[in-house]
Amino acid sequence: MHSVHLRSTTFIITTIIAVCISACAPATIPMPSATAPASNSAPTIAPATGTPNTIATSTPSVTALPIKPQPVRLRVLESAQKEQATVSLAPDGTRLASFSKDRWYLWNLATDQPPCALERSGWTELVWSPDGQFVFFNAHDVHDAPSVADAKTCATLRTFAYLPTAKSSSGNMQFPEDWSPDGKTLAVGHIDGRVLLRDAKTGTLLRALQGHTYNAWHANWSPDGTRLLSGAEELGSINNVPPHAKVIVWDLQTGKPQLSWQGYAYGNWSPDGSQIVLVGTHAWAGKYTIVDAQTGKEIKPFTLPEKSRTALQWSSAGLIIATVGQDKTQVSIYDQATKLYTLTGHSAPVWSIAISRDGSTIVCGLENGTIVLWSINPAPPITKTPPADVTTTRTRTPTPTRTRTPTGAPSTDAIDFAFTADMGNNVRRIYGLRDVKKGETPILLTPILNAWHPAIAPHGKLIAFESAVGGVTQIFTMDANGKNIRQLTLGNKPSFQPAFSPDGTRIIFASEREGETKIYVMNVDGSNQRKLAEMPNYNFAPQISTGFDWITFVSYRDGNAEIYIANADGTHQRRLTNNSVEDESPCFMLGDQILFHSKRNGHLEVYSMNRDGSNVRQLTRHPDNKDNCQPACSSWRFFAHAHIEGTMPHIIIRDMGTDEEWSVPHVGTQGELGPAWRR
């Protein structure tokens, strides 16, 4: 970090992670370049006034982001085949199958490795096994028999013989449709109208369900595996006059039809199997109805204006329907009949749609072979937003004490600790720990999103982070399980380094939206974004004290990186360090301490000091003299930092009371950086 051009966009975009990684070389995580759509930056706001013992934070009238969560474009994938892309998501949502022209591609979204390919002639169908380890596929071409392949390598494991055709004039096309919940049986639709149940290991025909007259194109197992729903095009449908299609529910114990509906092409079970949604086709396109799965009685019919390509997924988040309308480059997202979003900006008409099992990810395959992944929020966001246009005054209170230890019982719905894992090839993922006791396995929170620099809200149920899904680094939030991703900042200038206020209602961050990097604050839902105070030159890495009375940050106003402190409203700014080398990455510990890293002894080490800059102490001193950087402060006696061991960085947690320390388990192929505590 000694020779950094301060006016460089690359320098400004870099977060605490990138700043420290440069010093902790060779573990480098490159940041994306900065190009994006038109800016939606907040205007300059006059600083609030206050004293060292109070916070007076005004909320003036400014252009705020919409409070309603918006879809987030996660990824864009390009295949070698520039023709219509048919898409299918694996059950866990971390792998994707796409078909274009003459082959299926299997993408590992978690690692961003190049996809492997299943080459087949003719138009093919593909179905994932329940555990996502295998795919069942075949072509609508008599030259390729149904096959099961390894979903990781694309290697064909076994090929099944074609079964005799009931009607010789019907041809021999068979369509993989669904895998039973226990993974033992495959449902295969036949062009002659039969639904064939085949042993998933041997391909042996177990049963043929006969009730359709032509082209059984859909099958869907009930959640408990005791019934099967099938949809077919029926004979006499050429003129698109009902009855042109039929859905049947089969009792698999008897092999007989239990329920049936004319005019519907396919359906989907509710998570508990008590209801079914039916989807109309041809003349009934756009028509839906929810029925009782036991009696067949209609519960809720509804109609949507879009009548083109449709996908649906019924999960605990709701009945999510994605459908293409008259503008074939747009996809409308509904929860039953309630419209949630419109996905726009596709480079070509949408050819196919897939929805993740939890309803939070939408995949659009385009006619030019491009694949676009979106995150939507079927559930309401977790927010604690203060009323708009009010002034909130907080009186300083003594810093609270905490007796919590890292070996307590982990919360099932909150994250205590998070960090960034470098997976190589510019791929970064955020992992979390529900409890920091030794040996706990980190939880992957962003399996398909390139993300870094996490910050955890005090309640542990919301995480802010950085990503550059639109080409420019911006700030996002997600729930503690990695769902409900929301973009908070917009524009063609980067915003980065989020940190939560102690009450979890606001986020402080750095941004280039006015040229030089300044410090801003916003409500936790992204509304009321405003500059905290006037600050000369470059200022970044803001943190708020546990008592809500101070902020600390890094500034280049004196020629190099030094640590400053100010009132929580940005007033009374004063320097705490004064060195010819960079002092960076400050954070507040419980009590009166600030931790930071510095290269003042020739390599990076973590230090502590009082809030007035006195009593500087070196906290890390590893015998190998490798860099130790990026301290992360908890609101009790523990802190974490990044350390280089061998060629990769890893994260160490230290108990300041006992001096005991331990390492977080390795998950990144190139190491782990950027630790963050729930505060």
Mind explaining what this structure looks like?
This protein is mainly β and about 675 residues long. Helix content is about 0%, strand content about 45%. The protein contains two helices and 54 strands. Strands 2-29-28-27 form a four-stranded antiparallel sheet, with no helix packed on it. A hairpin with a 6-residue loop joins strand 35 (about 460-465) and strand 36 (about 475-480). The chain is elongated. The two termini are about 30 Å apart. About 50% of the residues are buried. Mean pLDDT is about 80; it is low at about 1-25, about 25-65, about 235-240 and about 380-410.
Q: What brief labels describe this structure?
A:
single chain; four-stranded antiparallel β-sheet; 2 helices; elongated; 679 residues; mainly beta
Explain the layout of strands and helices:
Layout lengths: L8 H5 L2 H8 L30 E5 L13 E7 L7 E4 L5 E6 L2 E6 L4 E7 L4 E5 L5 E6 L7 E4 L5 E4 L14 E6 L5 E6 L4 E5 L5 E5 L6 E6 L5 E7 L11 E7 L4 E7 L1 E6 L5 E6 L6 E6 L5 E6 L6 E6 L2 E7 L6 E5 L2 E6 L6 E6 L5 E6 L3 E6 L15 E5 L21 E8 L2 E7 L9 E2 L7 E5 L5 E6 L6 E6 L6 E2 L7 E6 L5 E6 L6 E6 L6 E2 L7 E6 L5 E6 L6 E6 L6 E2 L7 E6 L4 E6 L6 E6 L6 E2 L9 E6 L4 E8 L2 E8 L5 E3 L8 E6 L2
Antiparallel strand pairs: 1-30, 2-29, 3-4, 4-5, 5-6, 7-8, 8-9, 9-10, 11-12, 12-13, 13-14, 15-16, 16-17, 17-18, 19-20, 20-21, 21-22, 23-24, 24-25, 25-26, 27-28, 28-29, 31-32, 31-54, 32-33, 34-35, 35-36, 36-37, 38-39, 39-40, 40-41, 42-43, 43-44, 44-45, 46-47, 47-48, 48-49, 50-51, 51-52, 52-53
